[in-house]
Amino acid sequence: MWILLYFTILGTYTAFGAVQTGSAVPGNSVSDAATTRGPHFDTAASKNVTALLGKTAYLNCRVKNLANRTVSWVRHRDVHLLTVGHYTYTSDQRFRAIHQPHSEDWTLQIKYPQHRDSGIYECQVSSTPHLSHFIHLTVIEPDTEIIGGPELFIDRGSTINLTCVVRHSPEPPAYIFWNHNEAIISYSSSRGGVSVATERGETSRSVLLIQKATASDSGNYQCNPSNARPANVSVHVLNGEHPEAMQHGGNQRMGSSVNIFALLTIVLYTYC
Ligand SMILES: *[C@@H]1O[C@H](CO)[C@@H](O)[C@H](O)[C@H]1NC(C)=O
Ligand SMILES: *[C@@H]1O[C@H](CO)[C@@H](O)[C@H](O)[C@H]1NC(C)=O
Ligand SMILES: *[C@@H]1O[C@H](CO)[C@@H](O)[C@H](O)[C@H]1NC(C)=O
Ligand SMILES: *[C@@H]1O[C@H](CO)[C@@H](O)[C@H](O)[C@H]1NC(C)=O
């Protein structure tokens, strides 16, 4: 029993020493550093936070050698005192102070974070003079994109390849629907040649392939994930005509086909 206790204490000291070695006091022995160095932040455990819109965020502040001082959280934007020690001061019910007894972590919990919550939060230690560590909170939201959008020009007879990418969704979307001109695309319709492949994860992708494009495949396509905003793309199937009929977007494309033509001519000229 006593041996076990001894080793537990020794183990704690060794772990503490390892952390100390990594910090800014080389040369000092562990016990010297622990007693002579006042309160200080463990910045590696008190990092900037990126939170998802609406999903509870935790801002951590780890303070070593706190002794009898108090840790407070202050919102920088309006110098609003949010928490003091274990107590939540603000009347905004979304904020809460979290601290386990004997822990060095003083955590600020923010429920339902909004874009306006993005900004700087100050973790303050009540020593004289007081110490501050600043943490940047960034609130992001799920984002849906169709690669190459918002307008795509495709030659008749070629394959329409629409890749929809969903980033930062709280969970991978349960499903991703595709619409064409407001109707859900059926993969078993008489048209044939329509397939979709979906890969779900931290970043999800859904690839819609439509073989042998015809004029009737033109129009608006929408990628609609279950838990993120939809994204649209406008597809123009070119009937062999030059895209100069289109007021914009066409010129650039014609420019590049002219270039390719010129290049081909040069290549042919060189090798023939
Ligand atoms: C936190 O974010 C701010 C602003 O983006 C940056 O200046 C600072 O270096 C970051 N701090 C850490 C510890 O990454
Ligand atoms: C904290 O403890 C020190 C002695 O260790 C004492 O001088 C100081 O007044 C105490 N501060 C508070 C706020 O209790
Ligand atoms: C479709 O496009 C994506 C990138 O946009 C590409 O990775 C994929 O290979 C393409 N698929 C086909 C069948 O062309
Ligand atoms: C996006 O697609 C949907 C469904 O096809 C349609 O109702 C909506 O009008 C489109 N939005 C834009 C901006 O084109």
Order of helices and strands: HHEEEEEEEEEEEEEEEEEEEH
In the CATH hierarchy, the third-tier topology of the largest domain is known as Immunoglobulin-like
- What number of structural domains do the residues give? 2
**How much helical structure, as a percent, in the residues?**
10-25%
**Biggest sheet record:** 6 strands, mixed
CATH homologous superfamily assignment of the largest domain: Immunoglobulins
Distance between the termini: 91 Å
Strand count: 19
- Helices and strands: which structural class? alpha+beta
Shape, please?
A: rod-shaped
Q: Give, in spatial order, the strands making up the sheet with the most strands.
A: 2-10-9-4-5-6
Hetero groups in this structure are: 2-acetamido-2-deoxy-beta-D-glucopyranose
